[in-house]
Amino acid sequence: MKIQEFISSLPQSVITGEDISIPDKVVRKLFTLVNLNKTDIFYDLGCGSNNTVLIAAREFKAKRSVGVEIKKAIAIKARKKIASINNAEIINDDIRNASISDATVILLWFTDPKIVQQMTKRFDKDLKDGVRILTIWSPPTLMLPSSTQFPFFICQKPFKYAKSLKEQIEAIYGNPCIDFTASWLLAEKYIDELGVVPGQYRRFVNILQSMILWINAWNSGVTCENEIPTPVQAYIGILKTFFNIDLSDMIVRMEKTNDKSTN
Hints:
By secondary structure, this protein is α/β, with parallel strands linked by helices. It is built from 11 helices and 9 strands.
């Protein structure tokens, strides 16, 4: 099964993110890291079924706590959670259109590069200096974080940008490239910090995520290795043999991309 077939076989609610939520303990950790307090106006862009808006308003006493959710049915469910809280609200809108100019803290957890790029432009244009952007897994585009506790990042306006992905990686991790070991450890830490993977699936998810991370780094030209290392070949083989997930087509595309870049 090719990786695209594997993804397409997943429930649509998982692919769209409808059934994926941030555990409350992670939400509290994020808010502690960003020092969310009673002077802040918090926005969760794409709040889904998370309790972020509720926790920001009730536990961290944010001046105002706002969730933006494009799907009407999910927005209605989210409103029920905060019905009795005066300083919280849910807006049913596209995050690319919703007004966010009064925000002081924003949580953005999107993987679509186009949406992230569009929102980064909005952040530069619409937000005031001092606003803190919370992200999970990576900073928006080439932003340089003001604070990092992987996989959580805080970027504060006025934003600073790296000139390249290598420069960003070096600023965050102290090394301009990612090798197999780093890919494995980053995937492992991400899984541990989010705490959403049941123990019996942890090894499988760690293998799959670390391989995709390394392959994406290879595609971007930021791996420390010049050739596909033996451990990567071995784990790709394990995924194909024992889990029927074939990542080899991704590697082929990477090699073609790299060949073109050298011409």
